Amino acid sequence: MFSQVLLMLVAIAAGVAVLATGLFLAPLSEQLDDQAMRRALAIAQTTAAQPRLAEELTSTPASADGPVQAEAERIRLASGAEYVVVMNMDGVRWSHTNPAEIGERVSTDPRQALAGREVMQIDSGTLGRSARGKVPLRDDEGDIVGAVSVGIEYDSVRARLIHAIPGLFAYAGGALAVGALAAYLISRRVQRQTRDLAFSDIAGLLAEREAMLHGIREGVVALDREGRIRLLNDEAGRLLGIGDEAVGEPLAEALGEGRTTDVLAGTVTGTDLLTVRGQRVLVANRMPTDDGGAVATLRDRTEVERLGRELDSTRGLIDALRAQDHEHANRMHTLLGLLELEMYEEAVEFVGEVVGEHRATAEQVTEKIHDPLLAALLVGKATVAAERGVALRISDGTLLPDRLIDPRGLVTVMGNLVDNALDAVAGTGHARVEVELRAEGRTAVLTVRDTGPGIPSGQRELIFTDGWSTKQPPAHGKRGIGLSLVRRLAERQGGSARVAEADGGGAVFTVVLPEALADPGLAPEPAAGFLLENFTTSVEGAAEEAAAAAEESR
Q: In the record, which residues are listed under signal peptide (predicted)?
């Protein structure tokens, strides 16, 4: 590649030198011709201005020894002209370089000069090709009595041109040498920067780069030192929701303000930074480049985070089942002891109390929350809360009909809020969490209060940003997404999510979801006991078996 670049640059320098020389020589020849004609004209004007020349022309015959010839020769020798010819009105010479031509008619047309006009031209005569100047000759009264013709030898003009060419070529050669040296230095620099790759190799690498960038399933965004997008592959455009029109725009204009812009711009530093763009959870990494820009990579963690949330839900379900199993085992042991001690009436009473307790919990939820998914969630959370020593209470103002348009979305919101509240109050004295869900027309309002330490006023907006968390990250991924998703879900429906200080201490989270419920009559409400019957079936069965055993013993 080095030799190719060098040859191209030298050829360009040589071509420029030749072109410049040709462009200089063409006007130089014309300039020299013009200078010669103007010089001949000036000599002719000086000759015609001699005070006695017109009188001598009209009063003396044409001869080699006449005063006109003498004056013309004096001027010719003094000026270096090829000839100085003085003629009368008939074009007959009174002077000439060759005395034999005196008395003869001039060889070129004198009519323009004899008519009173001054003439400059390149023409051929008896002495060959010359640059000529012709002027009229006037007497003291201003009448034209003849003309003066002066010629400058054309070979002298050509000689001046030829004489200038070697110097011009010397300058052109010097320029070519400088251009060749510059071409060599540039070629060496290009060789170092391209690592001596041939043009075909560079073209191949570029094609492979484009195919790789647009083929990988990872977003790549390149930024210049001014923070403008200079490269965007297909996956990055899909993940960020922008197109090729964003290339060349500042990052803030293309993406808008937010955490994603801060992460890509380097305002937020770190590795594997989480950010939420639309409905996608992205993992971003940023690497600065030597030119002051940066390259950022994006990975879609939506599926992974969804699996993580499902894993959290599964763990929550397992905790609930474990708590129920632990509680059920204790009660079965108690029941077994009562039966072994033949305390049958006490056993029947104990089973009734257990069934009543579970029924009371389920009834409390299902009477106020008619959506089966939300009711099941809160029943399960109540069991987990009881095991962790937290009192989970349904507010008296709670009443939510079974007209939810997106119950899964509310399950996500309520699950995140309750889990955060349980984590906040766990291990504190008089730990209590209160949940309130109510409908205001078609708007659903969710409120979760806790008796935990609360949220400092300076962090009440910060907790809703991606990646912010006070907890240790789980094994499957990063924390700091739950509250961010809660707010995004609320804002996507035109609502809001906020946190404030609860009465008596702690925090109160309020989520408003407009248009969350369908119009009355479009969705039938199930009976209040529908979920209760399914939830308490196993407990009632156990109670019936215990009662039957007691009757047999009697």
A: none
Quote the number of domains for the chain: 3
Cβ(43)–Cβ(150) below 8 Å = yes
Q: Which domain-ending residue is among 160, 178, 204? A: 160
Q: Give residues with Cβ within 8 angstroms of 48, minimum separation 6.
A: 135, 136, 137, 138, 148
Q: 294 and 338 share a domain?
A: no
What whole-number distance in Å separates Cα of residue 465 and Cα of residue 46?
97
Which are the contacts of 338, defined by CB distance < 8 A and separation ≥ 6? Answer: 344, 346, 347, 350
The torsion defined by the Cα of 475, 481, 482 and 487, in degrees rounded to 10, comes to 180
Which CATH number is 275's domain given? Answer: 3.30.450.20
User: 491: closest CA among 522, 466, 514?
Assistant: 514
Q: Tens digit of pLDDT for each residue in 146-177?
A: 999 998 876 555 555 555 566 666 766 777 77
| Domain presence at residue 194 | no
**Is the overall model pTM greater than 0.70, yes or no?**
no
C-beta of residue 283 within 8 angstroms of C-beta of residue 240: no
Measured distance CA(414)–CA(437) in Å, rounded: 9
* Cβ(452)–Cβ(428) below 8 Å: yes
Q: Is residue 169 part of a domain?
A: no
Residues listed for the chain: 554
Q: How many CB atoms lie within 10 A of CB 419?
A: 17
Which is more confidently placed, 367 or 331? 367
Residue 513's φ and ψ, nearest 5 degrees, are -125, 95
The H-or-E segment that residue 129 falls in is strand 128-138
Q: Is 170 helix (H, G, I), strand (E, B) or coil?
A: helix
The candidate with the shortest Cα–Cα distance to 318, out of 257, 384, 364, is 384
